[in-house]
Amino acid sequence: MMKIASNQKGMSILEVLLGLAMITLVGSFFISGILSMKKVAMDSGTKNSLYKQINDVIENIRPNVRMYQINYFTSDKERENALNPGDLPMAWGNGMMSTAKDCPGCPGRYGFVIQAYPGMKGLYLVTVRLTHRDWAQGEKAAVAGDAKSYGYVDYQFVVNSQ
Questions:
Q1: pTM
Q2: In terms of Cα–Cα distance, which of 90, 110, 108, 107 is closest to 99?
Q3: Cα torsion at 61, 66, 72, 77 (round to 10°)?
Q4: CB-based burial, 71-98: b 16+ in 10 Å, e otherwise
Q5: Residue ranges per domain, the chain?
Q6: Which of 24, 32, 47 is nearest to 107 (CA)?
Q7: pLDDT tens digits, residue range 131-142?
């Protein structure tokens, strides 16, 4: 008969494999959580910059709407032509604003059109179009520097000239 040692130290192969599997699982959840938080932080930074940009444009136009060019066309097609995403004159990004010529690598573009509100004297319809390369959808994924392929969002508001 074989004598069994009374003091066995160490772990079996099964215990080592189970421990390694648990460490791998916890590590993958941790890395996945960090990547998810990084994406949420980037998206919230873009949205914060977007809302700040919209607010800056609105607050700039509202008090002195008569100082800007006012368009008297009323059709949606003419407004769409004026706000063509490839021709928007201003560029924006997280915490910055510039002209499109000065910042060709900026992720967003914006522009606005002021129209006389039909049938209402002294009221103007302002349409602000903001584009961003991350908003491109479907097959036409945005190409950096090609603002025509960016997705866009329009914001409309009415201002009083008095």
A1: 0.66
A2: 90
A3: -10
A4: beeeeeeebeebbebeebebbbbeeebe
A5: 65-162
A6: 47
A7: 888 777 655 555
